[in-house]
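Holo prediction. Input below; ligand is pyridoxal-5'-phosphate.
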Amino acid sequence: MGTIYLDHAATTPVHPRVLKAMLPYLQEQYGNPSGVYHLAREAKKALEAARERVAQFIGAQAQEIVFTSGGTESDNMALQGVARANRGRGNHIITTSIEHHAVLDTALALEKEGFSVTYLPVDEYGLVRVADLKKAIRDDTILISIMYANNEVGTIQPIGDIGRVAREHNIIFHTDAVQAAGYLPLDVNRDGVDLLSLSAHKLYGPKGVGALYIRKGTRIDTLLKGGGQERKWRPGTENVAGIVGLGEAVGLAREKMQERGARLRHLRDMLIAGVLGGIDFARLNGHPEKRLPGNAHFIFEFIEGESLLLSLDLEGIAGSSGSACTSGSLEPSHVLLAMGIPHELAHGSLRLTLGDGNTEEDIKRVLAVLPPVVKRLRDMSPLYSQNAEVSNC
Ligand code: PLP
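Structure of the complex:
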């Protein structure tokens, strides 16, 4: 039996259509887009066609798209670039306590450079309160950075409302839409977004390529210095094949979004109902409705997420205890802690994120495997036997 892959929030397989679109640019169409001859012009044409597709995907104009090496670079450029270019206007940045480390650690680094950062709290579902945002705004606030949807618990933020507040106060607004892209319809004008981060490998494109949308007129410094590529926003010879892959991936996402969303929601709800109905002391994390269609995130009391993952791996099921970057560390997830989940519970988390390749059969298999695995791990836990006795009284 093959692996049941339930870690699509970490990465997705490259779609065959994406691979097919990329291959010529790794082989016969190898020109450097900066050249003047035919081969180079072909590469340049492909680059600009991909830029147009990415722009359409988020309701932007092509010249507002800068290609990067992925979500991490886009987030770094948005925060560092805006902070440094707007220092004359102010020193204060607002973000949240549940951002991906690409934003969070950049904000921490900016604090060391002398910027002042407010980390907004979230409620028990992982939602930012717009009232808290309004209260945090100061005369010297230059940037708000709030993710579209959370990579761990899948909660979707009220991005349109946040964008309106940013507009009213004339503050630049960045959103990390890496997890939302391909699942939620994005529109930078509807949502009042000035900068938006994307990553190809979360939506069936290749790893190591992404984009940053920069609204025309936004003051931003570059991270890298070098040649004149990407109109000097992002020097370095372009990853032509990767960028073509990103273009194809967003094209595919536009075509499939509705059908994909409905399918994933159905499978996700089947999984959630089965787990909550079939396992004691299990709870769902994140918002019950405002959540990504493929995200199911649980806590199982009295067990360690890491042991659960290893046991599932032996059964051929690939899941995660949180984000890929935090698994392997013994610290519980900052997202779960920010949602008010106590340390000891946060250790027992399991994130299962569904994708195009998953079927009802996969979910049935998970629902057959998970309860006995959880039971076996709990039987080894002294905490569980104590508690089970208490709850039997
Ligand atoms: N932002 C979010 C919300 C993510 O989930 C990820 C990937 O895990 C990133 C940023 C980083 O993207 P990349 O892996 O392309 O650097």
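The longest helix spans residues 240-278. That is the main takeaway for now.
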